[in-house]
Amino acid sequence: MTLTVDSTLSGIHSRSEETVKTSRDFDRLRTTKESLDEAFETDAKNLVRLQIESGFSRISDGQLLWQDFLRPFSENLEGLEGGADLFRWFDTNTFFRKPFVLKKVKLPKESSFIQDYEVVSAIALTKEAGAKKKIAIPGPYTLSSLVQDEHYKSKREELLDDFAKIIRKLLKNLSVLGYESVQINEPSLVYRYGTSGLTSRKELKSFINAFEENLDSPPMEIGLHTYFGDCSPILEKLIELDGVSEIGIDFTQTSLDSIEKIDFGDKALACGCIDGRNSLVETPEWISDYCVDAVRALEPSGLVILPSSELKYLPRSVADEKIRSIGKAASLVKKRLN
Amino acid sequence: MSKKKSVPSEKLFPLQEIGSIAKPPWRVKGVSNDSRISESDIENAELWGDRLGVKDSQKLIDLLIRRSQSSVPPTPEEKDLIRDYSVLYVLALFEKMGLDWVYSGEQWRVEMYEHLVRNIHGFKLLGSVHSFDYKYFTKGAIVEVPQYFQPIHLDEFQFVKAHSTRGVKIPITGPYTVVDWSFNEHYETLARRKSKGKRIDLRRTYFEARRNFILDLVKNALRPEVENLIRNGAKWIQIDEPAITTRPDDDEMELFVDAINALTSGFNNCIFSVHNCFSDYKLLAKYSVELKDISQLALEFANRDSTDLGTDKKSRPGYVDLKYFEKEGYEGGFGLGVTHVHDFTGKSGNGASVEGRNILESPKLVRDRILFASNLLKDPLRISVNPDCGLRTRDWETTYKKLEAMAEGAELARSKLS
User: Fold this and answer.
1) Domain A4-337: which CATH class?
2) What is the gyration radius of the CA atoms in chain B, in angstroms?
3) Measured between beta carbons, which residues in chain B are less than 8 angstroms from residue A229?
4) Smallest Cβ distance to B130: which of A15, A85, A280?
5) What is the ipTM for the molecules in this complex?
6) pLDDT beneath 70, residues of chain A
7) Fewest C-beta in 10 Å: which of A27, A272, B24, B166?
8) For chain A, domain boundaries
9) Contacts of A255 in chain B (CB under 8 A)
10) pTM score, whole prediction
11) From the CA of B184, how many Å to the nearest CA of chain A?
12) Could you tell me how far CA A111 lies from the centroid of its own chain?
């Protein structure tokens, strides 16, 4: 049987130096909104073209307009209010504005808000190239763990469940917007699992319940990606989730040895062996060797090659080099496994 | 724990600054080839020159007037003079406020990370990385073994020493922070090479590479710099480590401790302190007793405190974390952060007022913070007083008011205890 091999990004990409300069100028009132929009458009188009040239099968606009991974949600969900205070994004040197939960969280009636954060002209190139339109969104557990809850208090499970309901509705909206691939990112699930205060074993059960009740039959292919932590303690539970076709693992944090006895069942492996946080560019041969070893050890139903995390932690030139390497590695892996 | 050299002081609650101060507009534009000095920049230099009594400030004003009328870029000599004056203004500000320990406000540095790595062989600056919103920072990679090739802070130190009558405390960026904020290409490559032909555990190679990087950085670059500063008369070096506790694992904290001990061991004529802010102090406290040669921890507390007056626990929640250090047996001094340094968005209590996005602490609030800490530590001699961190995100007017309140508050606390 032929193993499908896909390649994709994991979320927000880094901005080009030109966009950095223009957005800095905009921030300091030295340039216009039109110049800023133009910079983002050029930037996103270049990024989409690079993904197409590199043979990526799922393509995004790099989510370059997302100021942080929660921002479209904190700016649009009912019940959430964008906070002014900055908080560290896990153990990176980047920051996000922590939203407050002031009342029950809901998707607004005008619920295609994701459109406001798309570079539409860049995404249009995806369709022309015949690739799948892809987006990464935060999962219900990560959302519930990173907000400042002033409403649900002891009913944390209810908050998690409400975020899962929001994601269910959002997936339908994303399907209408033409998204064929959605990656649900859940770093909070694995970040210092059981010790960080973000995660606890009891909460894992709540997550599984919320996910199964709300996301068991999504309208498109869904990947569940874990990163910034070791997923080995919870991997078996994630593999059991219906509705998810692939499980993403950050191999800079999870050792292959520790999970090789786990049965991957009918799930594909999203192999995050390309370090999203180090500028050392992995060679296509190195990535290919790692992926082939992982496939042989885990026997997944398919393979997706992707960075361990978003590439926004790298300067753009380095992040783009990683895209080229992933593309070449995907070709090598296809030849070796099929 | 080894016996610590105490922080030298002739009075209770000595005053100190922590790091950077906002660069005045004439300093920013004056050294840029693309910007023109404006009328308001000249007025700014005149205003603060008069207010602080900066010696020979007319020389700067004359230069700025010439620059405002010129369309050619400034000469290197003109740029140097502008940079020199920006330090003189900072020193005048600190001295007017009565600070006992001063420095340059880091006016000669681009930024705390970039300044250091630009001056150590083996680093390569790669480009901009997103921090938040439309804010970015330049990030470098270590691509070879780090090597010291020239003094990094000596000119700055000697300039400050020559122009101030106060004690001089030199802030340098610490090894853990440099490593945490850099990409690790060289050592990761070496570590991965060792695994060639075998299945690689990336988490393990990552940590091994990080450890080798930090130890080489200390041995080959930072320690020679410290030796050079001490040889030239440095009496107090503050090691800035904002990155510690970012990765709250024991092995990471041990790495920090090992690096600091390797950097500071064996020097008899110099005091060392560590500055850390917006951090997990329970975790830091656990390792504080292992920092063998550190005489002071300069920490941020005002940011986590209420702005109500009072010296009870309820009024002073931000300073309760001091108990963790006591519990662990830390015996060194504290640089007690008594003024907030960032934007303030909440409501002010009866010990402060809000002006725009600034909280302005009253002297009485500063007093109460110091008295609460003195009581908790049961030894006021262990306390020096400072802002939470460098005040570079505040304008000069706000900085002036905050330092003034800090000095007056410390005096009120002294009176109370005398």
Assistant:
1) alpha beta
2) 22
3) none
4) A15
5) 0.94
6) 1, 110-111, 197-198
7) A27
8) 4-337
9) 201-204
10) 0.93
11) 7
12) 20
